[in-house]
Structure formats: structure tokens, C-alpha cells
Amino acid sequence: MYPEEMNESIRRLEATRKERMKQEFPMRTAEQKKELLEGFHPDYIEASMRALAVGPNKGDRTPHELANVLEAWPVLEPGGLDLANPESDVDVLVIGGGGAGVSAALMAQETGADVLLVTKLRVGDANTVMAQGGIQAADKANDSPERHYLDVLGGGHFKNRPELARALVADAPGIIDWLEKLGVMFDKEPDGTMITIHGGGTSRKRMHAARDYTGAEIMRVLRDEFQNRDVPRTEFAAVTELLTDAKGAVSGAVLVNLETGRKCVVRAKAVILATGGCGRLHMQGFPCTNHYGATADGLVLAYRVGAKLAFIDTIQYHPTGVAYPEQILGQLITEKVRGIGAQLVNSEGNRFIYELESRDITASAIIRECKAEARGIETVTGGVGVWLDSPLIEVLKGKGSIKATLPAMYHQFERYGIEMDKVPVLTYPTQHYQNGGVLVDDTGHTGVRNLFAAGEVVGGIHGRNRLMGNSLLDILVFGRRAGKAAAEAAKAMEKAPDTGLRHMDAFKAELNKAGIPEDRKSPMLLPDYRRPEMRRPYPFLADECVQPVAR
Amino acid sequence: MAENKGSQDSRVSGSEGRSNPQTPEPPSLLTIYVMGKAYEVPKGLTIMKAMEYAGYQFIRGCGCRGGFCGACGTVYRTESSYKVKVGLACQTEVEDGMYLVQLPFYPATKAKYDIEELKATTQTLVRCSPEIMRCISCNSCTKICPQDIDVMGYVNAAIRGDYDRVADLSFDCIMCGLCASRCPAEIVQYNVALLARRIAGAKLQKRSPHLQERLKEIEAGKFGDGLKKLMAASAEELSKMFYDKEVRDIEPA
Hints:
The complex is a heterodimer of chains A (551) and B (253). By secondary structure, chain A is α/β, with parallel strands linked by helices.
């Protein structure tokens, strides 16, 4: 339960519930949206970003936290590596074991390639498992891929790459069909009709869900299929650098075994980056909803071999992160909670925004309510948030509906004595998603030869803001597209490529010229949450204790 | 002996992002024992953040940090009770005198199958995982489940070939493996449940009729031109369509 000082505003919220149920709250106009974003969205804080001094996006602005890993020296010390004699030789190397990586690997294998998937954590340790709310697809009679397209573009402020948005919406029904056949248990009516709801910014109810375990359900089925098909994989192996041939095409990667520190060279005819996002960089000190490995490694690796990044000045803050209790601060309260009727309510018991605006708008409105209007609810630990009136769901959908449709959410709060079917939950925006990333074409190709990318590491699909349910969709759409294209590219190559690190020299020269401090290294690989005085960089890369094996 | 008693830095809640703007008082410390070794950590942290406070940087035993991936299953005892308790390190608050060990991996067996070929008969689950017949109904699996799943209940349903029941009971499973670690019959419960759910999803739930309809339309090229037109439209044109309630009417909630 909540401390007494917070209960006072809960009573106000309860007093207005009946009124609020009848209240029609208008959606923001284009002008009002602009005002909200410019005034309160964290991306618009001038001092939070800087222009990059090196690389393909030189001059483009990006948050300092991301700039610090892009403008950094390679952590890999190539001394002692026998680059010409790789320990592993494959057609397609997939880096990353989330939904994008696993679907890419499955597809590449189906296309006839010899595949290896490597991941620095376990297969499935990814943001995919944390995606609760759903996956979009325009598969109902009152909907169409064109409508879906317009919603995607509207959410992205009309900046999305058209060919990527087209691929997303056109493939969507096929993805749902693929998942159905694999045995993903979507919420359905007895006759097979999908139970779909709205998400922020959708014009049709096209959010397909598996209770509030949608991503977890998809991931556990894909992982099972991956195991059934014996796709080779190596876990707890992080990529520290990509390899390139004499012409600058990507030709493999250097791996490090995080448990022994031993390095290993993998040669590949094509490489697919499926490394996910950057939540663990904690932009502007925000907590995040992301998994432990979301440290922007893929952006760093791609950037060094010359891949262009897009929309790196836009980060998605999910409107509803947990603001109380402290133990789970910043973790996700799925948008599905609002999708099925919960309202956002300030300390006075009033609504202040239509709950299903796109995420950037809703997040900005919550920040305004707390910071500028002082109508937030303060927590005992000095935090602030607004209420998400979850018991309203029980009024609208019937008693017991929260436990039935939001079991994960219910469980998460109940562990701390908060029963969200009886009391509201406190919420504040949290860093959630990397809207931008490596620019690709609609086959997932990055523009650097033989380097493909899929999943959150990619930029351009969602423009400046992604809608709920389009991320679970894009990882599978582009995972499969990249898997196919990479396998075909590999099959078209006659001989194995040569493997080198020449790109590092050019990049280092740029770093040197820009005066980047030499102790700034990347990729980060894993975050360090120990007390500051205990931190030291890359303890798991200390390979001095391991003698190189004579070969 | 407690060790690593650190300075009271402001990141009381662990250092994941936004630290408290005002830290009212130095936090009170309690003692936890990680694999028997004592550490003093602030009250109110999760096991995961407490271990990090104590100086661990995880490689294993840490995945999503949000209660969904099953990487951080933790077994512990407290001084006041004989009982073995469990929790996810990322979701469980530390208690004074907690003796804990993480169990990030436990060896498991898994049937390999072609989902398309499997049939939803009462025998399929037993054929794929015959060891489920060895269940002695000791209920250890249910007692240890950090997700409060009736694991034994679904194993029994699996023996009966009741797919819907297995799927329903096991749906919240995050595959942490703690059930398998306790099973005297050496069953890998979570893999049995996953197979049952996949069969239920692929064979017993009806396919969506509207989805098949849409796939046929896409195949016939119904939306190709419309999408092409939208792709060619300027931001201004798109914006006009987007805010036009005639063009883009919103389905009522």
C-alpha cells in the first residue's frame, strides 16, 4: 500500500472517477503537439546533445551519452589475434539473440546458409521478452495496410523512410500468420477472431496480444524453434569489433568470451547486426525499461565500418514507467493498461491528456504536469509521478479483468503490496526505445557491403517516434528480410572474404584528429552499476590470465 | 565480517538512472550473505541492485531486469526460518540475514520436434517427454515457482493430454528453471509446458479467418497501389490526411 501522504490524492482520484468515465477528452492538434514536444520532451533540451566530431554522421546532433560511445576508441587490442586464420567460418553471422536475431537466423538457415548466432547474454535476453502490450497488423476487415501506414507515419511525424514503413505494414499480416503456425497463443475469440485493441496513435484496433506477455510468448516460441532446428549459437560472447576486407566490406567479427576473456575470430560472408537499443546508456539520467545488454554496441560497431545512422537525435521515453515503488523504478507499465481504459490523473484528480496520444506526446504531457504545473504526486523518496487509474479497468471491463488480461503487471505490483485492481499506480516517463539507428534499405542492408541490420539497432522505420506494437512487428519483418538477403548475398560469393581491421586505422586517425580522450572506449558491452569507487572498465576483458592456445 | 562498506553515495536505489533528487537520510544498512559471504547493503534494494552495490558486475544471472526473462532465479534462506525461499533477483527486496545464491542455469532436456508434424493427441506430450509419467506429486515445483504457477497442476494436466489446461496454468512461465532444479522425477516442466502451448496455439486454437482473408487480398495485390500513392505523398499531404477525420476516422474504443 501507499504511504498516507499519497493516499490523499488517491481519494481525490476516486472522487472524480465517475465523472471522468463519461468525459470525452479531445486529441491534440498538430500545433498543440508541437508546443508540448518543444516545451517538455527531453529530446528538445538543447544542452542534452552535441554534434558528432567523427564518423559518417559527423556534424549530426545526438545525446551526449550516445556520442560518448560513438566518439570512442576501440576496446579491442588486436595484438596476438591471428586474423587470417579464423576459428570459425560461416556464411552468415548473426550478432544478437533477441527477436530480430533469432528470426534472422531462422530465415538465413531456411534460405540455405550456414549460420552462427552469437550473443553476449543468453538467446532471448532482449527487449523482446519485455514487450508486453502487443504487435500491430492490419488484418481485420475495417482496417488496411494503407491505414496502418498512415498511422506509422503520423506517429513518426512524417519523417519515416517510406520504403521501410511500407515493408513494415505490408509484411505484418504474414508475420502474424507465421507466428500462428509456430504456435504463438494470441488472445482470440473461440472462432479464431483476434481480440485486438487500440494503442497510442492507432486509428483501428490492430494490437494483437498474448495477455501481457506478448513479447515473452513470441520469444519463447521462436527460441524453441531455433533450438529445434539446431541453429549453431554461442552465448556470453560479445563482439568487440567487426572485420573488413581490403575493399571495406564486412567479413566477420572478433568475439570475446565474457567468462574467460578469450578472443576469437569469426569469418563470415555476411553479418547481421541485431544488437538492439541503447536504454542502458541512461540518457539524461533517466531510468530505463530495457534489458541489461542494451548498450548501443551495434551502433558503435556499424559506425566504425562506415555505416550511416539516422534519427540519432530522438529517443523514446515511454509515458508510463514505474514511479513507485523505488525497487522497480523505471520499469515498464505497458501501454495496454491505457489501451483497455485506464486514465492518467493528476494530484487534483483530473485528466490532462487523451491517454492514447502517441508516446512522445503523452510523455511530454506527464512531464509538463509534474514539472511546470506542479500537479504531480510526490513520493517519499523525492520522486514524482501522476496516477494511472487502473481500477477503472475493473469498472469498465468487469471485476477480475486486470488479473486476466494483465497478469504480469498485476504480479509486478502485488510483490510490493500494491493491488492495481484496487488502487492506482504511480507513473512517470522512462527511457524506452531508440527511435533511430543504422540506416538500412528494405532488405536490411546497411550500405556497407555485406553488413545487414534488423531490430531496434535500425533507424528510419519509425521516423521520430515509434508507435506501440510496431517494434515487435519490425524486429520480425526486418529480421526475416535481413536473414534472407544476407543468406542470398553469402551464397552469391564465390570465395571466403579476407579478414582485417583496416577500418580501425582510419577511424582512429579521425579520433586522434578530433582529440578524443584515449581512455574513452567502446563498445560498452555491459553496464556497470557498482558504486562509483568500485567501477573499473571491462573487468571481463582481462585476458592476461588466459594463455593463448597454440594452434 | 561485513565488507565493502561503501560511502553513502546518493544512488541509494542502485545506480540505474535517475537517482533521488534529495536523499533525506543515510539509508539503514542490513546484512546479506551472497553464497555465504556477508555484505552490508542499504535497505530497500532488490537482490540484484544489492549485489551490484556490494560490488558484483553481472555476466550471468541478469537479463531483462524487469521480471520477464528468467535469468535471475535466486534461492535463499533467512535466519528465522527453515524454509527455502525463491525470488527473481530483479524483483525481490533484500531482507536482513538473507543467505542467497543465484541459479542462473540448470541443465535441462528438451524434446526436438517438427511442430507442423505433431498432432494434438493425448499421447503427444508423454511421447515427447516420457519422464512426466514419473511425477510423484510432491509439489516441490509449485512451491519453488517465483511466478506462483501451479506447476504440478500443469504437469498432471500434461499427463492427461489436457492442452488447454496446461496452457492456461503455465502461461506466466518465464522459464527460469527453478522447478526443474527441484524435481525428484527429473522432469523439465517448463519445456513440457512450452510444447503444450505451442500445440495449443498451432493446432487447437482456430486460425483467424480475417487474417487468411487479408493474406489473400495482399497476395492479389489489393494494397499495392494505395501504398505506392502514400509513399509518394509529401509530409504536408500526409499530415492533411492524418488529421482529416473523414480520411482517418478513429475506431471507437
